[in-house]
Design brief:
Keywords: Isomerase, Pyruvate. With about 240 residues, the chain is an alpha+beta fold. It has helices at about 5-20, 25, 40-50, 70-80, 85-100, 100-105, 125-145, 155-165, 165-170, 205-215, 230-240; strands at about 115, 120, 180-185, 190-195, 200-205, 225-230. Helix 3 (about 40-50) packs antiparallel against helix 7 (about 125-145).
Length: about 240
């Protein structure tokens, strides 16, 4: 896999090109994130990205900055508290935080663990989660506005994250974990595989669908993914690219 921090920087640049071209009406338009405008989505990305620069290297979790009982609730509270800034200020705020992130992550020494949401992560895994979040929210911005946002091989990091966190997804649902092998078709037609090929459960199909499913931008029945095995369909229902 390509260096995830380099790919994170590339994802920022792709999203930045979209944001820089938005009109005032587009900034105030409804996004794909329920109850949020496009401006709200960018505000959320700026707020969460600013937390990456905080040197939180102790504890099992961080960045739950309200009394909300869920991560989504905490993020909604943050956005509600700060919404209303003009687009140029929002874009400048997001750029300042986002474009500082790659160097901030690279600056941590080998073996560092960074407190984040409900756990601690290595800098590279935190980079993967930031890539997944920016890509998912880019869908929330571009799809309702009819703006193209091509899938790239950077989806491999997001697909890896979705597969890697399947045990967490099962545990959140109160279900015992299940071994799953994924054989996914990349945007360029090559195949990406994750997990033990001998696992009793197998998921095949487009990597882009798998990533959108993990981001909860599609439901299983809206994808071209195929599930085989006793727990494969449940894995499709539970897979996620994020903490909640």
């Amino acid at each position: 896999m390509a260096d995830v921090i380099d790919d994170l920087a590339a994802e920022y640049r792709q999203l930045d090109a979209v944001l820089a071209a938005l009109t005032p009406d587009q900034w105030s338009a409804p996004s794909g994130a329920e109850g949020w405008t496009v401006a709200d989505v960018v505000l959320h990305l700026a707020q969460s990205e600013e937390a990456v620069g905080v040197p939180a290297t102790t504890g099992d979790g961080a960045f739950l900055p309200s009394t909300a009982t869920t991560v989504d609730g905490a993020m909604a509270d943050l956005v509600a508290a700060e919404r209303g800034a003009p687009p140029d200020a929002l874009l400048a705020r997001w750029r300042k935080a986002a474009f500082a992130t790659p160097d901030a992550l690279r600056a941590h020494p080998p073996g560092a663990r960074l407190a984040w949401v409900r756990t601690s992560l290595s800098p590279r895994t935190l980079a993967t989660t930031r890539l997944a979040e920016h890509w998912a929210h880019a869908q929330d911005i571009t799809v309702p506005l009819g703006i193209g946002y091509p899938d790239t091989d950077r989806l491999r990091h997001i697909a890896w994250l979705a597969h890697r966190t399947l045990p967490y997804a099962f545990s959140v649902a109160g279900r015992p974990g299940a071994a799953v092998h994924c054989d996914l078709t990349a945007p360029d037609g090559t195949h990406w595989t994750f997990g033990d090929p001998a696992a009793p459960n197998r998921i095949t199909g487009p990597a882009a669908d798998f990533c959108r499913l993990g981001a909860r931008r599609l439901r299983p029945e809206q994808t071209a993914l195929h599930a085989e095995g006793p727990d494969a369909a449940e894995a499709l229902r539970l897979v996620r690219n994020y903490a909640a």
